[in-house]
Protein: Oleate hydratase
Organism: Flavobacterium agricola
Amino acid sequence: MKDITKKFDKVLNASPYYNHVDHQPDANKDVVRNGPDRPMPYANQNGNYQRNKPVLAKSFENSKVYIIGSGIAGLSAAYYFLRDARIPGKNITFIEQLPIDGGSMDGSGNATDGYLIRGGREMDMTYENLWDMFQDIPAVELPEPYSVLDEYRLLNDNDSNYSKARLIHNKGEVKDFSKFGLSKKDQLALVKLLLKKKEDLDDLTITDYFSSTFLASNFWTFWRTMFAFEEWHSLLEFKLYMHRFLHDLDGLNDLSALVFPKYNQYDTFISPLRKFLTSKGVQLQLNTLVKDVDLEITDAGKVVKGLITVQDGKDVVISVTENDYVVVTTGSMTEDTSYGNNTTAPIKKVDNSTSGHSPGWKLWRNLAKKSVVFGKPEKFCSDIEKSAWESATLTCRPSAFVDKLKEYSVNDPYSGKTVTGGIITITDSNWLMSFTCNRQPHFPTQPDDVLVVWVYALFMDKDGNYVKKNMPECTGNEILAELCYHLGIEDKLDNVIENTIVRTSFMPYITSMFMPRAKGDRPAIVPDGCKNLGLIGQFVETNNDVVFTMESSVRTARVAVYQLLNLNKQVPDVYPSQYDIRHLLKATKALNDNQSFVGEGLLRKLLKGTYYEHILPGPHNPGAVEEEKKESFLSEQFNKFHEWMDGVRGKK
């Protein structure tokens, strides 16, 4: 590899930066300034400059790569091993305990037996790592040379997403969802939380900080149902979400900030990515459980020597050399999923005694026994009563339910365009039930007269309003009964049941990554001392990114590859909207229900007619006359004081 850079050797040999790159720069600590000691971009200085190909310090052609888990994080790791490390595809092997790839991003079934999607993904335009990858992955339906990103934008640029029925109550009546309803005290609490340091929030819950009035607001209903937060979840993660999605706050109530795929997440993302990887020679070994890692720990570091797997009921050890690399997906959001249908409930009761004992958590537990650098998995998988919820996938033929759905839809459900524009939440549901119908067809082979609707609920321990059971103990037909009751069509339940196939999924760990945590509970992506082992997924530490997103999974994979192989390339930090004065002002006004915030009138006066006039959000609010008068008075007194000071200084 030395021949490649020989024309640059005088510079590279004298450089303190070459082969000493900070692969995961931290925007929360980065001082934005230029100088002779700053040759590389700022932490979140996103853009095409970050698309450089790293010149390798050595060849990895003979290195083998073993990726444990074939979810989006694992698939992304393979992509970056291929693209940036140029490791031959034939040297990369996925080891997956399931009979199919994709991990938590599933999509299966048919119109006869019913479709199944355990969860969905709300996408954002600022997912820099995700779109970095998918701009290179061939499109699902467009011909060459188009990519998944090209296809995604073609659809979303021409079909806006928004909701006209974000909240409903009173048996199907659309509820006013135009306002967040935050008191001045609760707005101030959010601002103070943004100002707090992350290290001051270890192990705190949302209810440790916020008042009862905040938890009763529309804002919290929007937030908790969109992101699946519970009151006992991590305050730190809530804060990270506020920073990460600050630019979306004014679209939180009508979901207009979101972009959705044409099909389900498996057919949109997993399938084309897997096809691309296998076309490059990447191997996929299914039905193989990795239960432990043979890790040699010495003063010189931690080196993987082998993988202890279970294949066909027998222990099989896969040898690993120091020149090979192992990437492990720690934990699992969808491990131990229980399934039900129209006539069968997914579980009999929630049993917390089973927490964390399944194979998907065992590998991380075994790693944690070897060293404290591998974190504390028990913080996330020990209380399924607080990390579980249930979803249901409805395969719908025309019925009274479909007729009702049309009333809440922004376009005809059969038009191929945006339908509900995201989840519709039933605010007076004991289960806090939500449902959504994305663009149809949701599956490529779905018949024209079939709709696929997704339902989920956050409150697992409460009896329904109509069906006096908690949701996990209900059959699919009982869930339909509860839904029809809240839509005011319970008298047409027989018609709905006759034309609806229900498949339910109870997921005990679906929000486990939100559980309260402290520094050290989640391991670093490349834990201290590890020479050929990286950890990826939703249960590893990043500087400022959140969990439960495709972007965060891809980020962890990219960091793992760059850091393990010491590539001369960085992974930019999260999109910097939190530092953009335009988004800060826009968010401030949104939190105040688009009423003028303190100082807005003065700002408008100062900026009127200047280059920066446009940074203030929205039109002037005519309802803020009194606030304007106060600010005009203050401005007038300030100007008089300024004129007086000029006179004192002899400038007049």
User: Anything to note?
Assistant: Residues 78 and 92 are 7 Å apart (CA to CA). Residues 622-626 have pLDDT under 50 and may be disordered. DSSP finds 18 helices and 18 strands in the chain.
